[in-house]
Design brief:
Layout: E1 9-12, H1 18-29, E2 33-38, H2 42-54, E3 59-63, H3 69-82, E4 88-91, H4 106-127, E5 136-140, H5 154-174, E6 180-186, H6 201-207, H7 216-227, E7 238-241
Parallel strand pairs: 1-2, 1-4, 2-3, 4-5, 5-6, 6-7
Helix pairs in contact: 1-2, 1-7, 3-4, 4-5
Length: 247
């Protein structure tokens, strides 16, 4: 059954490829008009826009570096202005920098915290000015926020764990306005950045209970449910869509 999102407007940050693109298309199939942000992948963002429009929905691609708070705020406001409203914010954009903790540069630390923590906060802050009752904020975290099984994940894991506090705090603050806030933690997911046939994929898949990678569509299905009316009483939750990685 397809979640009904007719008349809704959604913004998916980092929505030009991978999980973000899968979420954008799933929300469009549910009936939502969808905007995506991108930093470098203009061609891929244009393709997502075309696919959304083929589904009969309005679409918008906005170039925005999520490390820049002004760019994040402007993107949110532009969606509300150009598409007429904002009902669903999906904080998906992220950077994945790994390495021995003593070798990470100050710039790498700053960019990770800016994109993975500050940007979701700034986007939620901007979106809160536009969201009405029934509004949704859904942030994409990571399984390694709960279980860092390999060396070199300290920075990334820290940045994703911080999203738990953000989600719960926002859920309390925005709940009286009928706005829900939830966190989705994907497990290993088959994307061009982390292919299911990559050099370490077999070992990673073996840690999950299901023994395989997810598809972007499987992550997107959970996001679509959280965006819909059937999830109206679900807020402040951390939903692990990880194939049993953290079990």
């Amino acid at each position: 059954m397809t979640t009904k999102l007719d008349g809704k407007v959604a913004l998916v940050t980092g929505g030009s490829r991978g999980i973000g693109a899968g979420i954008a298309l799933r929300l469009a199939r549910g009936g939502a008009d969808v905007a995506v942000t991108y930093r470098d992948s203009a061609d891929r963002a244009a393709l997502v826009v075309k696919q959304v429009e083929t589904l009969g929905r309005r679409a918008l691609a906005i170039r925005a570096d999520c490390a820049d708070p002004a760019a994040v705020r402007d993107a949110v406001d532009r969606v509300a202005t150009e598409l007429g409203r904002l009902d669903i914010l999906v904080n998906n954009a992220a950077v994945f920098l790994v390495g021995p903790v003593e070798q990470l540069s100050a710039d790498e630390v700053e960019r990770t915290l800016a994109v993975n923590i500050r940007a979701p906060f700034v986007a939620a802050q901007a979106a809160a000015r536009h969201l009405g009752g029934g509004g949704r904020i859904i942030t994409i975290g990571s399984n390694v926020g709960e279980r860092a099984v390999f060396p070199g994940l300290s920075l990334y894991s820290m940045s994703k764990t911080a999203l738990v506090g953000l989600t719960r705090g926002l859920a309390r603050e925005l709940g009286p306005r009928g706005i829900t806030v939830n966190l989705v933690n994907p497990g290993p997911t088959d994307t061009d950045a982390n292919p299911a046939d990559g050099p370490n994929a077999a070992a990673i898949a073996g840690i999950t209970a299901l023994g395989r990678f997810a598809t972007p569509a499987e992550i997107a299905g959970t996001v679509a449910h959280l965006a819909g009316a059937e999830a109206a009483y679900l807020t402040g939750a951390v939903v692990n869509v990880d194939g049993g990685f953290t079990s």
